[in-house]
């Protein structure tokens, strides 16, 4: 079998296995994400696996660079990736995406035993406060865009054509009216 046929078969299998699983996400036909752990779990992490053109004969690209993993230290990420890489070497030549996701789920506690959440919110707020002192104070409220009532919207729609443009000559001055009013002033 060619690499493409293997990939197509594995893609079908992944779709049927993970159908309805909120933790699984297909980013493209060759790239997948899986959240290990429940939503809100401080030890949860996200693994992204992308297939190369010659996968499964060559190893897939495994990444933990998702924003979801910002609270995990780089040392813990490297440790998880190293353990997953060992599993890749054992399974090289076979369809392994499901195997890798399940291996990560089974070993989640072991992977995250040295995990101490990094409080990224404070570091982000420090960066923001350092970068923003030159801006105007935020005490001024932004003007809200005026909301139109249904009647106002309808009236506006009646004035415009199907493209939303006003008809030709909408702002032309009525020459007859002007000439009449002008003649009264002359008298």
Strand content: 5-15%
- Architecture of the domain at 3-112, CATH level 2? Roll
One letter per element, helices H and strands E, the order comes to: HEEEEHHHHHH
Report the principal-axis shape: elongated
Q: Report how far the terminal alpha carbons are from each other.
A: 100 Å
Q: Portion of residues in helices?
A: 40-55%
Structural class: alpha+beta
Q: Would you state the CATH class of the domain at 3-112?
A: Alpha Beta
Calculate the mean pLDDT score and round it. Answer: 76
Main sheet strand line-up: 1-2-3-4
Strand segment count? 4
Q: Could you describe the largest sheet, including whether it forms a barrel?
A: 4 strands, antiparallel
The tally of helices reads: 7
Rg (C-alpha, Å): 31 Å
Assigned CATH superfamily of the domain at 3-112: Ubiquitin Conjugating Enzyme
CATH topology of the domain at 3-112: Ubiquitin Conjugating Enzyme
| Unreliable residue stretches | 120-140
General description of the model:
It is a single chain. This protein has 187 residues and is an alpha+beta fold. It has a domain at 3-112: Ubiquitin Conjugating Enzyme, CATH 3.10.110. Helices cover 43% and strands 11% of the residues. The protein has 7 helices and 4 strands, in the order αββββαααααα. It has helices at 3-17, 74-91, 97-106, 108-111, 120-131, 150-159, 175-186; strands spanning 24-28, 31-36, 45-50, 61-63. Strands 1-2-3-4 form a 4-stranded antiparallel sheet, covered by helices on one side. It starts with a helix and ends with a helix. 13% of the residues are buried. Mean pLDDT is 76; it is low at 120-140.
């Amino acid at each position: 079998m060619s690499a493409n046929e293997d990939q197509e078969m594995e893609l079908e299998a992944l779709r049927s296995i993970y159908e309805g699983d909120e933790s699984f996400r297909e980013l493209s036909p060759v790239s997948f994400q899986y959240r290990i752990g429940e939503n809100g779990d401080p030890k949860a992490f996200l693994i992204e696996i992308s297939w190369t053109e010659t996968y499964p004969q060559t190893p897939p690209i495994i990444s933990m660079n998702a924003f979801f993993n910002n609270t995990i230290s780089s040392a813990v990420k490297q440790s998880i990736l190293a353990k997953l890489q060992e599993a890749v070497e054992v399974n090289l030549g076979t369809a392994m995406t499901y195997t890798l996701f399940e291996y990560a789920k089974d070993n989640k506690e072991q992977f995250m035993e040295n995990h101490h959440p990094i409080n990224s919110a404070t570091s982000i707020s420090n960066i923001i406060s350092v970068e923003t002192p030159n801006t105007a104070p935020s005490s001024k409220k932004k003007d809200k865009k005026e909301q139109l009532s249904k009647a106002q919207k309808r009236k506006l729609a009646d004035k415009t054509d199907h493209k939303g443009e006003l008809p030709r000559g909408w702002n032309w001055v009525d020459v007859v009216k002007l000439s009449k009013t002008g003649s009264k002033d002359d008298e």
